[in-house]
Amino acid sequence: MSATTAAAAPAPAPSRAKQAQVRVQRFGAFLSAMIMPNLPAFLAWGLITSLFIAVGWLPNEILGGFGNADDAGSWQGAATQLALAEDGTTFQQYVGLVGPMVTYLLPILIANAGGRLVYKERGGVVASIVAVGMITGSTVPMFLGAMIVGPAAAWVLKKIDGLWAGRIRPGFEMLVDMFTAGIAGAAMAVGAFFGFAPIITQVSEWLGSLVGWMADNSLMPLMSVVVEPAKVLFLNNAIGNGVLVPLGASEVVETGKSLLFLVEANPGPGLGILLAYSVFGIGAARSSAPGAAIVQFVGGIHEVYFPFVLMKPTLIIAAILGGATGIATNVVFGSGLRGPAAPGSIIAVYAATPRDSFVGVTLSVVLSCVVTFLVAAVILRASRKRDLASGGGDLEAAIAQTEANKGKSSSALGALSQTVGTGAASATVADETAGTRPVRSIVFACDAGMGSSAMGASILRDKLKKAGRSDISVVNRAVANLEDDVDLVITQRELTDRARRHAPSARHVSVDNFLSSPVYDDVVRAAQQETAERTQS
């Protein structure tokens, strides 16, 4: 596999605004890397809650944890099996699944994921130990605390290990490693119990009070003024995973549901914009919008509508008004979700909807779509003559700008680009000095380790299988989880430098589009050539 790279003039230094945007994106990607892998656990908890609590579809005292003497109507799981009654006697109390999962399992999973991002397995173990100390010392679900202490505990252990790295006598490494992690974990768990847990508890209560104040003063719809523009600029991870998901989960513990899960995930505004383009758009944008609408509404990939907004930035007004309408509808009907809807598909939304919220949630999606469609239609109609005269805007340039805002390529946007008629994306070998060893393992790496990289891995895996080389391992991972034990790493151009730091001895290839790249054919040809050489020898 070979490629040539042309000399290019040094790129101009990014502006301060762009640097700030990149920092927020990286921070959001780090938060997503803690939340996204654990979303199946959130979904499982949401399903169990919807089914087995006292107001669920299939109420069950044992599984729902609401069968105790003093609070028979409560849906929350009990923390202990024996409770002390007012007269001093004890009575049996059901633990259930709901309470332990939200109190212990979910925060520990988040902390473990954060610890692994910083210091791999050792960091994950210590982060989990410290998370238990924080959880038992608090009075509220510690989602926010887990996202802080998990990475922090792993960072502290990493620094401690660095103090005597290379100074331990041979044969004592395991002993030192075990006791270092155990002592450090125990000490930090005690510190989290007495010091950190009360602080995070207070912060969580303040944030909850802020949300309550906004609800009492009918200000919740104003959240769309921040969230909708942030989505288009890919700054939503910091807001959604960093703030809305932890607050929503805490609200679910108190009320059984939260509309905060639908502030960002509501597919209505995006669908409204794409439907408006389908009816009133022109050229490539009009022909591409119907397919993008299906991907966005059913598949939950919201980023496919971002280029349409970037083509005509005034459409952000339509998205804001639509999002605000959805929030206001949920406020009026008192509706919400049991857990995060990820991806933001209507299927995921309904899967997390409790029995008493189907009307409100449905109306929030429908009305937000209708309002967005009507406002977007007015904007598109008002500029139709100008758009016809100018050719209707450059959708391909808007797609490229969307990927630049995201900081990496996207399989969904790549598919959208193909519908516009764009040719295959280019690819360059970023590091041809890594050696010429045979390729036995290939890793597709992106920020979260799923989505676009999974699509690319599936495509190349299928190509290699058809070429008779199913023995080559092709997997997808997050860049932060790369290890220096692979032969070839394929990443989006902006992530190649980060990937090289994690796997310096591998060959690194950059692509512009995970969905369609000539690099895949190069890899297959190299594999076939190797097979032919082995046969001849």
Account of the protein in words:
Helices cover 62% and strands 6% of the residues. It has 537 residues and is of the alpha/beta class. The protein has a five-stranded mixed sheet, sandwiched between helices. Strands 1-2 form a two-stranded antiparallel ribbon. Helix 7 crosses helix 13 (315-333), helix 10 (268-280) crosses helix 13 and helix 11 (283-297) runs antiparallel to helix 18 (411-420). The radius of gyration is 26 Å and the shape is globular. The two termini are 21 Å apart.
Q: Could you tell me the strand content as a percent range? A: 5-15%
Give the spatial strand order of the biggest sheet. Answer: 3-7-6-4-5
Total beta strands: 7
Class by helix and strand content?
A: alpha/beta
Largest sheet, in brief, is: 5 strands, mixed
Q: Could you say which overall geometry the principal axes of the C-alpha atoms support?
A: globular
